[in-house]
Amino acid sequence: MISQQIQSYVTPSKLRWYSIKFFERDEEIQQEIKLSIQQQREIEDIIKTAEEIFGDSSDSIIVNARYDYVAQIMAMCVIDRNDFQISVSDQIDRIVTNKWLALPIFVLVMWLVYYLPIGSMMFYSVNGSQILLVVS
Questions:
Q1: What is the pTM for the complete model shown?
Q2: How many CB atoms lie within 10 A of CB 43?
Q3: Per-residue pLDDT for 56 more than 90?
Q4: How would DSSP label each residue in 15-51?
């Protein structure tokens, strides 16, 4: 990693910032911190590998990461008015679980469950045999 290559040249509190600047190929930072040719090659290999993986230049990778970070912060901070609308399911729950309406609604549903399959069919007995009469 880039931070391993430059950790002896930079204080730990600034290591991440310098690593990002090296990843961006910032010329001012590269002139400020003199690395050996071997360290420069290793950093360049790391950058090229990242560019191949992401399919973009190192500058664009950093810019995209920054925009993604800002978008995440905005998503956490910005409140949309649609977030506070009550869904249809919540509206139904509010009625069905109402303190006074819950029991009558339950009785009505149970009556329908019984009436539809059984109550709509009437049985009449004629001469000892049963005739099924369906009333709609």
A1: 0.53
A2: 21
A3: no
A4: HHHHHHHHHTT-HHHHHHS---HHHHHHHHHHHHHHH
